[in-house]
Design a protein that fits this description.
By secondary structure, the first copy, chain A, is mainly alpha-helical. Chain A contains ten helices and no strands. Chain A folds into two domains: 1-52, Arc Repressor Mutant, subunit A (Orthogonal Bundle), CATH 1.10.10; 61-210, Tetracycline Repressor, domain 2 (Orthogonal Bundle). The longest helix of chain A has 24 residues, at 115-138. Chain A is elongated, with a radius of gyration of 21 Å. The structure holds a DNA duplex (30 and 30 nucleotides).
DNA sequence: AATAAAACTAAAACGTGTTTTAGTTAGCTA
DNA sequence: TAGCTAACTAAAACACGTTTTAGTTTTATT
């Protein structure tokens, strides 16, 4: 690798690092490409030359932490259905440490129409779910008619959806945990073999008791930004 | 209602109608507030005075069709678990008639951070699901420990998520139907009483057979918009 | 009819993401 | 060392959503 490439990589790193800092200061909107360029001491055209778009840049930022994310997820002992629930807990713990960061990232990922970006994140997550499902099938906890791919996709879909709801501020983090566990619990209970099923349903009903009513959604009044004329 | 209000309502109607026309011409981006104002023969400030934001306007547009949507959904005979599956079919049929329109609308609804707008759409849908679940409980098809509110929210969440995936172009319409039915089928099978459960699982497995592999996601190459210098 | 209030307009402005242009720097190669 | 090329810069520009300003019309009230 020549020095040219090295310099480019260093600049990429610099921009990614700066972007991460900006993403962590809570307010999602406090992060424009112009201020990023200014803070990083770089032309505002450079991030576009190096990453292509704001979303691609954010993806690159999150990518650096993604390894940590995956190891945090897979570090858990892998036995029984509880591993799915622990997955949710671990994710929530991670989010709690850096809410602004993950919220910004999740929203950016979801806002993009670039398929490569989304699959870049969805595929590893899907792989993890698929492995967990396959293991459960082999342990005889899930009936063998089930295609790991299809089930994993459904579980991942639910997970992802509630994460997005949290990122948008529609639900709190504990709520996200409960609703995700509820969804995963249902999906698993449906295909669980008789032995595991009863216990799973018991857990689901227990979670259900902690859920707030759906009607109680946070609602703000219509944003009426017209201020009255000051006489 | 005085003439002032009448005029305002007429102007609202005019803008909504024009907006719907623009939304139907397929390309989501072919719809800027400036062109809308121009086509409607109205100042570009007027839609903001009357609706507040682009998203609110789109919500208003979709609102006019929402009644049709709900009647189309509820027109189906309400018996057995099949009603949930028919719900998905009816939605897909509606989407197929006007893909650009519903796709634009769904994306706009999802992009907004305005809670009132989202709940405006999620609440009636949630109500429908809740009613269906309650009915199923009373018919003894779903065990009575289940809280209709919680289950309905989960089913609606899955439904909504796959609709969004379709609106973003991540999956095809038949795929949306299959994956949604798969998800609903699982959720219902989990809580179905013994009698209904076997049949439901059979249907789920049948749907599963039609699902494409998760790995086969549409992927485009990274958007490399740099064109080469023309010598 | 006179006046106040509201609705609407045209036009400019702001802050975005993004692209383009033209010029400069820095590394590589002959 | 000389020259080529990729990388970078500064600055302007574009289109967008949105807001503001100031002026004009329309309606309701007295």
């Amino acid at each position: 690798m020549g020095k040219r490439d090295t310099n480019r990589d260093e600049k990429r790193q610099l921009i990614v690092t700066t972007a991460r800092k900006l993403m962590q200061v809570r307010e999602v909107s406090d992060f424009s490409m112009r201020t990023l360029a200014e803070v990083a001491g770089v032309s505002s055209a450079t991030p576009y030359a190096l990453f292509g778009s704001k979303q691609a840049l954010i993806a690159a930022v999150m990518d650096t932490d993604f390894a940590d994310f995956m190891t945090a997820l897979t570090a858990e002992p892998n036995q029984g259905f509880d591993v799915f629930f622990r997955l949710v807990d671990v994710t929530a713990e991670l989010f709690e440490k850096n809410p602004g960061y993950y919220s910004t990232g999740a929203q950016a990922i979801q806002a993009t129409t670039d398929q490569t970006l989304t699959s870049h994140f969805s595929l590893p997550r899907h792989g993890l779910f698929k492995d967990l499902v396959s293991d459960a099938i082999q342990r005889g906890e899930i009936c063998h008619q089930i295609n790991p791919d299809s089930l994993a996709l459904n579980l991942g879909h639910q997970f992802y959806g509630w994460i997005q709801a949290w990122a948008k501020g529609n639900i709190t983090l504990p709520d996200m945990v409960a609703r995700t566990k509820y969804g995963l619990g249902l999906g698993l209970a449906a295909v669980a073999t008789e032995a595991s099923r009863a216990q799973l349903l018991e857990q689901v009903v227990a979670i259900q008791a902690t859920l707030p009513e759906a009607g109680v959604l946070k609602t703000k009044p219509t944003p009426n930004k017209k201020q009255e004329a000051v006489s």
